[in-house]
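User: Here's a chain of 471 residues. Predict its fold as tokens.
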Amino acid sequence: MVVTTDIHTGTVSTTAQLKHGALSLPETIGQSIALVAPTFTPALNITVVAGLAGVGSWISYLIATIGCVFVGASIATLAKRHPESGSYFVYIGRNFGPVAGALAGWAMILAYICTAVAVVFGFPLFLGNFLAVFHVTLSSTLLTVFSVAFLGLVTYAAFRDIQISSRLALVLETISIGIIIVITAIVVGKHGTVVDPTQLNFSKIPVGGVMSAMAFAVFSFVGFESATTLAKESANPQRNVPFAVVGSCAAAGIFFTVIAYFMVLGVNDNAGAIGGSASPFADMTNAAHLPWAAGVVYFAAMISAFACTLACVNASSRMLYSMGRFQFLHGSMGMVHQTHKTPYMAVLASAGIVLLLFFCLLPQGFLNAFGLAGTIATYGFVVVYLGVALCASFDMKRGGVLKPQHVICSAIGAALMGFVIYASIYPYPAAPFSWLPPVFAIYMVIGLIWFLVLKGKSPQILASITSDMEG
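Assistant: Prediction complete.
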């Protein structure tokens, strides 16, 4: 594999290209659905929302769904005009300048990689809980070994073929969601009704708690935009990618809203029980006297973890690939495998960084490390979502196609993301989470310094972002 750079234009050429047009609409949707990992919300993520919003948890998810759909609509308008594998790197760079675009790509690389780290830490938690149903206990050392092997399987799938890996991610997550829906239906059936007067009595809804929980509800959606990173590999990306982004967001939101409602119903409106639990869905099944269901739920969560990690590696490697092709990062990141047509060096780099961060955070314990990695990943996502919401209208205006609905989508999306950022740092979190805002800021400053140095030494490379960057 040979990578060459034209010093006059800053563009990079390789002897192989990504597998253009390989992904169908369902496979493109699979990337976004897998990275959202809907199973994680009832299995773990709903804990914080239920603790704050109580019987109004479903309303928090409903409002978050509406807001994220508006953000998704802004992303969809950009995806139609810029069907590139660099996605946010391209969207923001072409509207707010190359340094801003590079920083967006820099933030999303961190977001995707840290999400993968968080999910790898989630895997041993789910494996341990699954085996506990059968009264089997593994040592932390063995769980760590299984986690590393788990990451190895994910890397192999991402390395081999994007079509196979995206299809596998969609199938696995569909199976996982199906298991959750079936078990929830059984629990609701034991109640004999889907009507919960307490949850539907708006005078009993804690409005303040609902608004506070909305920020955490939004966290369940991060990754819905990741289909944009596969634009070069999707058939008809100007149709498939926008549909995948908005469709996956809306579908996940409906799932979150409905499942939150039924989970609170399943514990007889004792939302505090879910809010104080490390295994909320299993607590619901136990309350319904279905202890066997816990094992099924944890098995489904492991399936979801594989699909989500695979989607993260696919997404982060495409960001590295796009930035590598234009020398924002080392040119080897733009190399494509001759046979598999995947950005194999970027895939290996992504997996290697995930493994390194896994071992760095391992002393914190699986659960704390899951929270730390997931939180800093969210910082990267919401900052870029805010930038995308703001730049969507600018992009439409530059193209002479700006309409009132574009402005409305941008305004609502930007307002929601601004609120999420505010709620993430105020009140300021306690240690060790208090380390994360400055760590994220330092990471972004390092990227800014690097890109400014690059701008001074090779301005033609940064200028190339305003032209057709993918060639």
